[in-house]
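Attaching the record inline, Q. Sequence:
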Amino acid sequence: MKVLNKKKIRPKTLKALIVTIVFLISLIIRTNIVQATTLDPSKSQNIEMRAVEIKKTNNGDKQLTFELWANDIDFKGFDVRFAYDGSKYALSNLTTNVETDDENEYFAFENEFSKKLDIITIPYTSGDTTGIRMIISFNPPVEDSENVKNETLISSGKSVLLGKMSFKMKTDTLDITNFKLVEDQTTSPTTGIKINTNIQDCYEDPSTFIFTNKTASNNATLNNLILSTQTDNSTYKEYDLVPTFDKQNKEYSLELNEYIDEMNIEAEVSDEKSTMKIKVPKKAEDGKTIIYEEKDLLNKTKMPVTLNKLGEPDTLLEVTVTAEDGKTQETYKISIHRPYGIIRGSIKYDTIEENENPDIDKTTDLNIYKTGKFNWNELKDIFGEIYENPKTYNDLDQIEKDQYEQSNADGSYEIYVIPGIYDLQIDKKGFLDCIIKNIEVTENGVIDLENKVLIAGDINRDRSYWTRRYSRAGWSYGPKCRWRRIWF
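Structure, as predicted:
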């Protein structure tokens, strides 16, 4: 048994040792003689052994430092008995981390208490269990100070740091459950802890002495998660997640009804010491299969994400936050759904053209416009109908297409569009363009335009000459399709 008297820095004398022991024994005896009252603690009242730091020392060993805190509890002294895994931890010098059984080396009071509190520690080993009994009390006479009144430590409504204790770690990671109170029905304190508020009143509930791990944060939550778009030529726009972001909710969705292929994702961690990874989709080497890759995501930094195309599965984004402790993780998921329908059909050439070039490549431009973007009736048609302010293809080129595709070489096509009402312009150089208006597309719906025939006769769209021989009746081909020739 060792006794540490922190009243002042001097070699211990036998007399001081005897006085301290006698005082503590008398305190214990008086406590046992007087009828004790066991108090019920509140949830906030406890003595806390708080693990606050793990660091490597110069020789490469790891040192674990505990802080001893009094939380919202007043006391004159306490007696605690706790055990720990001796194969993983050993009492060590606070300065050098060298193993020691000298309490002057592995424990130190804070300055305010170094002349007011005494400590007796009794390390022990029982079978596979390594433990320590620690008795802390006032050694009168004691002068009042900020946290000491009438030889009582006052921490009601606050937390007071009492001192620090050191262990040498023989394991890679701290498992705080390796430290725990030792109950013993035959030896006081039977619960492992006894905190005296005066001669007769005390706390003995095991909840009044706790071990906590504050060496690293286990906070793996996000404060915010944002999807947005912004290009050099557009304004910044944020998109509403469903449900509205809350750090406790881990799954979100977004229905995207826009023709965009990329968005920015930005996440803000609750604890800046945590880190993030994100899983994003990309195409495999075959150019078709969607696979997911993991990337680092920086705090409060926008990362561009390529979305799956219309007609492909929903884009799934996963943001995984790893807490400072390296173990605690939370994953936030966003599913981006892009509703779509399909416009499909096939392009044919007029009979004369097909006969002259049976293997002709029918790759053709397919321009999709929302209905109402352009008044097709204002285009001058091939018969020279005159309008007050006729539109030209230059005018049409100034209008943003909602979708642009090309047909396959055999003329077949399948266009994925957001549900809505559209006009389709089938356009190939040297042929009169075909316009189909008011195509209504619903989600998962398929509009089959079947065959549309293009007619040669407008090679340069410059009205300089006609290349084919057709009567007026020959220029009208199929419902909703009107061929036009534009004079520039």
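DSSP finds four helices and 33 strands in the chain. Residues 1-16, 29-33, 382-387, 462-488 have pLDDT under 50 and may be disordered.

More tomorrow.
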